[in-house]
């Protein structure tokens, strides 16, 4: 497949039928270089894509320019609201803005106050990213997102503090063993908070079902079974994703 195939509006540049294609697509989504795009460049990209949709492209425009324009627009503009997403909460900003928080979570010899602070900051950042990149095609009350946020923070802080207290009271463990065990405390706290967040924010899908599409993308009905599978897979993904950095030893 060509590096830049013929441009298709709203489609991925990479083959989504293969793992490598999906992997490269998400590398494109989190590319932090789009954080430095100027307002002038953004407006040029939007104008170029509007010209493509209207069939009025200027002569000499290449597929490369169109793919790059779409990448920039999708990285900055919310597809449903049409509004700019704040830089720290864009998917392209997740790594540069999220990495310092993860480092804070993994700091050794933390006090109870620092444990609470870093868990709160991590869940607050996650909540803002989730809300800023939400599916806004079907309006949902802000209270649902706030409920998920409160549940995630409460879960993360409770488990992190509780495990740290238990470790400190474990007299059979040597200081070195306690330090090693504490290294793994952030993972169960973050994983449980992620599950809590997903369940609280999407629990209505279990009772209402979710849209089921055919091969052409047309909605053919709703399914509670599909909703259950989607919720389970999403929750499992939220547990697996933090593993490489929070479980593997540095």
Brief summary:
This protein is mainly α and about 250 residues long. It is about 60% helix and about 5% strand.
Kindly provide the radius of gyration, computed on alpha-carbon positions and rounded to a whole number of angstroms.
22 Å
**How far do the termini sit from each other?**
37 Å
Query: Which shape, going by the Cα principal axes?
Result: globular
Order of SSEs, N→C?
HHHHHHHHHEEHH
Q: Please describe the biggest sheet, giving its number of strands, its sense, and whether it closes into a barrel.
A: 2 strands, antiparallel
User: Kindly state the mean pLDDT as a whole number?
Assistant: 86
- Give the strand line-up of the largest sheet: 1-2
**Residue share in helices?**
55-70%
Give the number of DSSP strands: 2
- Per DSSP, the total helix count is 11
Low-confidence stretches: none
